[in-house]
Amino acid sequence: MTIKSWLKPVVSGVAISAISMASLAAEPIKVGFIGSMSSDSGLSGLRAAEIAIDEINNTGGVNGQQVELVTADTREDPTEGIKAYEFLAESAEVDFIVSSSIDDVSLAWMPRFLEYQIPTLDTWASYVGIIDMVKDDPEGMKNYFMNVASDEALATLYINFGADVLKAKMGFESVVILAEDTAFGEAITGLVTEALAPVAGIEVKEVIKYDITTNDFAPLFSKAEQSGADFIYQISTVNAAGLSAQYVKLQVPLAMTGVNVAALGHEYWTDTGGAGAGISTLSPIPAVGLDLDPVSAEFVATYQSRYTSRPVMPHFNGFNVYHGLKQALAAAGEVGGFGDGWSAAMEKQDLKLMKDGELWLRYGWWQHDEIEPVTGRTYPHNIRFDLSEPFDDGAPSMVVVQWHEDGKPYVVYPEKYANGEFVLPSWVPAK
Question: Which end of the chain, N or C, is less packed with Cβ atoms under 10 Å?
Answer without folding.
Answer: N
